[in-house]
Design brief:
By secondary structure, this protein is of the alpha/beta class. It has 2 domains: 2-138, Response regulator (Rossmann fold, 3-Layer(aba) Sandwich), CATH 3.40.50.2300; 148-229, Winged helix-like DNA-binding domain superfamily/Winged helix DNA-binding domain (Arc Repressor Mutant, subunit A), CATH 1.10.10. The chain contains 11 helices and 6 strands.
Length: 230
């Protein structure tokens, strides 16, 4: 949506001081207008429905749920506007996942002052925005070689879920029940994960799974904290 030639923005971040800083930074720009702010997953959904912004600036680390889930949900609901992720988390691990979920750009918070406005203008113009380092990383992935250098970003959404479940100590039977799959299908996913991560054994897959689970826990708080945030 545009208001008097300006692209309307929704800011979704669970830290009020971050939202205030973003608002102050963007207030200097003639082509943007902040229409709403939200500090939780559900408030962000409500604000999106109420204001229909042209672009969303979204943090991945919301207190109640993951920003990646938020992107998938609003895309599934038909939101066709632009989404720019602004996160403290390493873009080498999360930028491609954000793009796959439906975002058009990724900026790390320590680069926001220099890069945010340019990133917003790029995504509003229909372009994808990543830092030069992230672009180089994804360009390497696009060569098609599925090797360890591709890391977790080469996994499908289902493989990522299963890897996280493995890291959480779930057995094949547990995972099958959790996702409504057969044990044979889970085993097939394990084999694909092993190949894509360049692991020589299932023991190495477990090590990678523990690493991945820890990284995911940084983005998505434990269930107890999510319950408190509701």
């Amino acid at each position: 949506m545009e208001t008097a030639g300006k692209t309307t923005l929704l800011l979704v971040d669970d830290h009020a001081i971050v939202r205030q800083g973003l608002a102050a930074l963007l207030a200097r720009e003639a082509d943007f207008a902040i229409c709403a702010e939200a500090g939780t997953y559900e408030d962000g959904l409500a604000a999106l429905r109420a204001h229909r912004p042209g672009c969303v600036v979204l943090d991945l680390s919301l207190r109640d749920r993951s920003g990646l889930e938020w992107i998938r949900e609003v895309r599934a609901q038909g939101y066709a506007g632009h989404i720019l992720v602004l996160s403290m988390h390493d873009e080498s691990l999360y930028a491609e996942k954000a793009l796959r979920a439906g975002a058009q750009g990724y900026v790390m918070k320590d680069q926001a002052e220099e890069a945010l406005v340019a990133a917003l203008r790029a995504v509003v113009a229909g372009q994808t925005y990543l830092s030069p380092a992230a672009e180089a990383l994804l360009a390497g992935h696009s060569g098609g070689a599925e090797k360890e250098a591709d890391g977790f970003a080469g996994l499908t959404a289902r493989e990522s879920e299963i890897l996280c479940a493995i890291g959480g100590g779930l057995t094949t039977r547990d995972i099958a029940e959790k996702f409504g799959l057969s044990g044979r299908t889970v085993d097939a996913h394990r084999v694909n994960i092993k190949r894509k991560l360049g692991c020589g054994s299932l023991a190495e897959v477990l090590v990678k799974a523990l690493e991945y689970k820890r990284a995911q826990d940084d983005v998505l708080p434990p269930p107890a904290l999510r319950a408190e945030g509701r």
